[in-house]
Amino acid sequence: MYRKWELLRAAASLVTPNRCPFCDKAIGAFEYMHERCLEKLPRITERVAIPKNIEELYACCWYDGAAQDAVLRLKEGCYIHAAQAFAPIMLEVIGGAVKNADMITAVPSDLYSKVKRGYVPAEAIAKEISRRCGVRFAVTLSTDKRSEQKRLNARERAENVKGAFELVDKELIHGKNILLVDDICTTGSTLSECAEVLKENGAARVSGAVFAVTPLER
Questions:
Q1: If DSSP codes are grouped into helix, strand and coil, which group holds residue 188?
Q2: Can you list the alpha helix ranges (DSSP code H) found in 13-148?
Q3: pTM flag (> 0.90)
Q4: Rounded to an integer, what distance in angstroms lies between the CA atom of residue 115 and that of residue 120?
Q5: Is position 212 within any domain?
Q6: Which tens digits make up the pLDDT trace of 87-146?
Q7: Considering the domain boundaries, does residue 24 fall inside one?
Q8: Which residues contact 165 (CB under 8 A, 6 or more apart)?
Q9: 3-state DSSP call for residue 73?
Q10: Helices H, strands E: what count in the chain?
């Protein structure tokens, strides 16, 4: 039995055909990716470094090959449907631990980036995870700072995001176990800063979930 949102997605494919975020080729109305692309993803099979303030980090792929292509399509190509492919892969890695979360939230984007894309990449993934597992999604953080991180080293990245995030509602997170979602983890500075804000304002526990980790973290 297909869910309502799956039927809507299939109906939309009659106007604009669905495309696999990993190879950008057409896929079926009820598909999210090619199985052959899924099999070729550079899966993480070892423990990765856990950012400060994060209890556990669930990570799926190295930021390389088709995984990198898909993340870039989500972040720079305005391909929001990549989030629908990422979510089930991430849930495989998170497993039953997702039920330990009281809520799912996401690393926010600044207003300029949100308007430019029309969505927040991490939020799109988090909402899809929430829809699939039934754990509530909530926006908990905001940012006004355009924090371009690409060309910065680890120390500069940490400094760049310091004080960049603000809490939306303190009562919302008090005493809660939170799953914090992002698309990619490079040095972990963004996840760490977001988690610090959440914990300082009453969150009991913050775990992280990302689709990709830069190979520099090996």
A1: coil
A2: 35-40, 65-76, 82-94, 111-117, 121-133
A3: no
A4: 9
A5: yes
A6: 999 999 999 999 999 999 999 998 888 888 999 999 999 999 999 999 999 999 999 865
A7: no
A8: 108, 141, 142, 143, 193, 194, 197
A9: helix
A10: 9, 6
- Answer whether residue 191 is part of any domain: yes
To 10 degrees, the CA torsion angle through 116, 120, 124, 127? -140
Quote the CA–CA distance of 1 and 4 in Å, as a whole number.
Answer: 10
Tell me how far the alpha carbon of residue 129 is from its chain's centroid.
Answer: 9
Contacts of 63 (CB under 8 A, 6+ apart): 71, 184, 186, 212, 213, 214, 215
d(CA 29, CA 34): 12
> Phi and psi of 103, rounded to 5°?
-160, 160
What's the CATH code of the domain at 67?
A: 3.40.50.2020
Neighbouring-strand partners of residue 104: 137, 179
- Assigned domain for 19 exists: no
Number of domains into which the chain is organized:
1
Tens-digit pLDDT profile for residues 190-204 = 999 999 999 999 999
22 contacts: CB under 8 Å, gap ≥ 6: 33, 34, 37, 38, 40, 41, 66, 67, 69, 70, 85
